[in-house]
Amino acid sequence: MNGSAGAQDVLWNLGDLYSGGEDPHLEKDLAESDKKADGFASSYRGRVAELEAADLARAIEQYEQILEPSGKAGTFTYLNWSTNTEDPARGALLQRLQEHSSRLQQKLLFFELEWAHVDEERSGKLLADPALARYRFWLNLTRRYRPHLRSEAEEKILAEKYVTGRSAWVRFFEEVHSGARYTLEGQELPQQSVLTKLYDPDRVQRKRAAEAFTQGLQNMKRVNTYVFNNLLADKASDDRLRNYPSWISARNLANQIDDATVEALVQAVTGRYAVVARYYDLKKKLLGLEELFDYDRYAPLPSASRRYQWQEARQMVLEAYSGFLPEMGKIAETFFTNSWIDAAVRPGKRGGAYSHGAVPSVHPYIFMNFEGSPRHVMTLAHEMGHGVHQYLAREQGILLADTPLTTAETASVFGEMLVFQKLMSLEKDPQIRLSMLVQKIEDTFATVFRQTAMNRFEAAIHTARRSEGELTAEHFGELWMKTQNAMFEGSVTLSEDYGVWWSYIPHFIHSPGYVYAYAFGELLVLALYARYQDSPEGFPAAYRDLLAAGGSNWPEELVRPLGVDLKDPGFWDKGLSMIEAFVQQAEEMAGV
Ligand SMILES: [Zn+2]
Hints:
The chain has helices at 24-44, 53-82, 88-117, 120-127, 136-143, 152-164, 166-179, 191-196, 203-219, 221-241, 249-254, 259-270, 274-287, 310-324, 326-337, 374-393, 405-408, 410-426, 430-468, 473-488, 506-510, 516-534, 539-548, 555-559, 570-590; strands spanning 181-184, 187-190, 341-342, 354-356, 365-367. By secondary structure, the chain is an all-alpha fold.
């Protein structure tokens, strides 16, 4: 392990949720949500279509009050499990909460279903009523699932079987990968520690780490192939039962974006794959290598060996956020001073990073594994963006606070851009500036090009599973290599080992179709940032309002006041051209 770089004591305090897994308030909240749900069902079940506007508004308020305590308990158990996935008591509590949430969902299902089934004439009248103004958007959102819903009895069965079906497989996958150890130079290391070594300046180290990771994935190949196949099949039957025309349609509907807009995004990005090759040709020269292999992609430039202590990372993130808008800096500071962040690396803690929005009556929590690299500083900047967004959007209430994935990454990526500019402005050494720019390019590539290539892989495996049946590990590997090679256009040599690296990526498992949202978010942010640079006057305040609006309107409506038109096909190209300009700037700085 690399050490926590001063973050070893940065542990979150979950006391604002509960004092621990044994806290009697947790049981009380569960019981309360059950009791309220029963009362709710006996008051409204079978009657939603008859409710007048004011009664419907009251019903929705009650609905929120049921979701709140159960969401609070669910948040706690997930967070509590994240920091020690090897503790059976935490695992058992998490499973119990998932079962509870499923039972609650079954009790409440009728409400959204009955509303979705209200005929157009009556729903139109209700939606026009001022008594429902606060919930109008949510009511509209719920109705868009109308063509894809089953009867209440069928929905109940689907919800109940979900717990031991998809949800159980996702947890199994996460536990297998959290518990996996990779043998590197006689040491047994967890995933995160091995992957961190891919950023090592020493090529031999990187190659060994890549080999150790490959070997570990090879050992798990049968399990991973089985889990992938099973979840692909589960998704196929879900889509068939719900009349979704393609594997991505359900995701697009959830993202509040139409299939054509997503297709245009994918086309625009794959159409600019040449930028990837252009960049890796430059990187080859900067590293002085004849040939670039997959394990060289993240190699730092010779001068890029800066490390950061937690306190420095904290200060830079706070200064960058305050410099943009003081209110945002203040909110960010609260996360540190109130222990809403868990950053220390320790055994049993799951990998990766997230910001969990919790429930509106509490506040978000940030989870990460800080080891002091510039990348970890960017992760903090990223998750803080989510955290501030979730914090501001709490005022929308539990039904409207969350944004769809398409705009969920806006604040996080914008936060990274702010911190990047801050770091660049402080750095005087031209070599380090170049390596920082290179880092930024690689991060942008990871979100735009890599995620789009992964979207192509996902499209290929979902389509293949549907037409060909169960897929072999080798077939997964072929599709992975094909979609990866398409992106690199020969600029990076992918070794045969790399063919198994599809099998650890959690997004394919827990959120099918998720990955394009990163590309969407990044390109949206590049466009927003360009606007901010062109005319900073009034921008931070409008941006703050965008965050505070949460998910209370369609994405294209939310970004309109900031001068962005998502329907404009030239919009994606504008962001892509900014990336190419970064590459050109790096070429100029490098003098090649
Ligand atoms: Zn994110």
